[in-house]
Amino acid sequence: MAYILDEAGQGRLLSYFDGIGKLLGRSERREAFAIYALGLLGEGERKSMEPMAARACGDPKRCRAVQEKLLNFVTDSPWRNAPVREYSSRYAIEAMTAEQPIEAWIVDDTGFPKQGKSSPGVQRQYSGTLGKIANCQVAPSLTICTRTQELPIDMDLYLPESWAHDRARCRAAHIPDELEYREKWKIALDLIKRNVAAGVPKGLLLADSAYGDTGEFRQQVHALGFQYALDVKVRTHVQIVGSDGSVSMPMSVGEAAEVIGTSMFRSVTWREGTQHPLSSYFAAIRVLPAHGSTQEQWLVIERPSNDHPATHFVLSTLPKTLSHEQLVAQIKQRWRIERSYQDLKGELGIDHFEGRSYRGWQHHITCALACYAFVVAERSRAFPPSARSSQEPDSLPCAA
User: Which of 156, 198, 218, 380 has the most CB atoms around it within 10 Å of its CB?
Assistant: First the structure.
């Protein structure tokens, strides 16, 4: 069920571009943004500057000039990213929340495969998106969700230690001298704080163990007022809280899974998959984490079946009154971010940027997020929750 912009939608697009243009200031920036954004939104397999310029002008003699205009806008022009990202988020959130509230914030990271060694932050490193170690850039991201929509609102580049400690290499990629090494969880925390300050409505915070296993990360997001459901690794230590309030000796979550035995696990189906219902065996016990919080919370333990060892552990501050089914439904929402990554990469070319400057990467990401925000707003209007029971829209059902 695709959606093509009608006359009213085209009017909204022009108004949206005008709002971003006011933040960009100069007329040449406004014009370049419009060309670049329409290139990302439009047809075309490759969304890098040269093919977008060729599609935009249609005249081979002018193509080089258009490409230079885009190159200057993305790589050299000193416009600020944060105001554009905030404007885009507010625009989409208004449409998303017309019928449904924000329910979740999802932290994750994605990989951008690269050739060579000059792109900022590139090295051989593990990417969960790629499922392997590869030559790539990695970017932590923040996505917010209602029950039926997902919106990536922020993203930042991970700068490995090998880069951060080589200032000559950083300067060649135009990475600011003040930008130092930050672990991925610290980057994610900065994204969260920035969007809390911008007034984005809060929801349950979800992240995998690369973030949730750090006690300080859990502590700080809780201090920011979030409930969370964060994956932790098997060696994370907790104390089991008994029904009488007694507290066990510290043990790993893997040991806790063995201590409680198979009788505590029950089968739960959390959603319909593409081929069959998705289900597993879960146990939920009350614990005190050994690091990062003194608050009693849930430890949710998952195993594929009762004769297999536990494979997945989640610490969550969700209410004590929730049932197993409600807990599992909440903590299993992280898969939704993959749909956004697929759209951003497959349709909007967020991983097609070929520049080698830090500013250029940030500007390209801002433009892609702004385009996706408009698409999500249009999708929310065209396919409201009340109309979704009969048919779900295809991925990215909007063309400019």
Answer: 218
Both tokens assigned to 177: 């001298």
Find, among 112, 108, 281, the residue nearest to 209 by Cα.
108
**Of 191, 228, 202, nearest to 317 (Cα)?**
228
Instruction: State the sign of the Cα–Cα–Cα–Cα dihedral 129, 130, 131, 132.
Output: negative
pLDDT tens-digit profile of 33-91? 999 999 999 888 888 888 888 888 877 778 888 989 999 999 999 999 999 999 999 99
- Provide the whole-model pTM: 0.92
Report the alpha-carbon distance of residue 304 to residue 383 in Å, rounded.
35
| Side-chain-side CA neighbours of residue 94 (13 Å) | 7
Question: What are residue 329's phi and psi, to 5 degrees?
Answer: -60, -35
Taking alpha carbons only, the member of 244, 210, 250 closest to residue 230 is 210
Exposure string for 71-103, b = 16+ CB within 10 A, e = fewer: bebbbebebebeebbbbbbebbbebbeeeeebb
